Amino acid sequence: MPDMDELLDQVRKQTEEVQRIQRSVEAMEVKAHSRQNEVTVVLRGDGRFTSIDIDPRALRQYDARNISEIVLEAVNNGLQKLAEASSAKFAPVIESAKSIEA
């Protein structure tokens, strides 16, 4: 059984790794689109959107209600991509923690 110093060292290393990954996630940028690419959104890892671009043809083709639905679709797609990318970055730390618990 590992002694207390070894356990504390493991916890410290994992904490540092989590902080490093968190900084990496916050710095990443995710781009997503609506189904037919009428709307493109870009968001940062901290969840803030940095741009929402609407194709001018969509503005001529759809009414306000449809445009809002298309924007919402692109935003939700972006949030989903961000969640997946964040989970992928944190997966090694989570697996490592599980192996320590076992």
Task: Summarize the structure in words.
The chain is an alpha+beta fold and 102 residues long. It has one domain: Nucleoid-associated protein YbaB-like domain (Ybab, Chain: A), CATH 3.30.1310.10. Helix content is 67%, strand content 17%. The chain contains 3 helices and 3 strands, in the order H-E-E-E-H-H. The protein has a 3-stranded antiparallel beta sheet. Strand 2 and strand 3 form a beta hairpin. The two termini are 12 Å apart.
Keywords:
102 residues; alpha+beta; Ybab, Chain: A; 3-stranded antiparallel β-sheet
In CATH terms, what is the architecture? Answer: 2-Layer Sandwich
How much of the residues is beta strand, in percent?
A: 15-25%
Per CATH, the class reads Alpha Beta
Helical stretch count?
3
Estimate nothing, just give the exact number of structural domains: 1
Helical fraction: 55-70%
Mean pLDDT: 89
Structural class by sheet pairing and helices: alpha+beta
InterPro entries: YbaB-like_sf, YbaB/EbfC
Keywords: Coiled coil, DNA-binding
Coiled coil: 4-31
GO molecular function: DNA binding
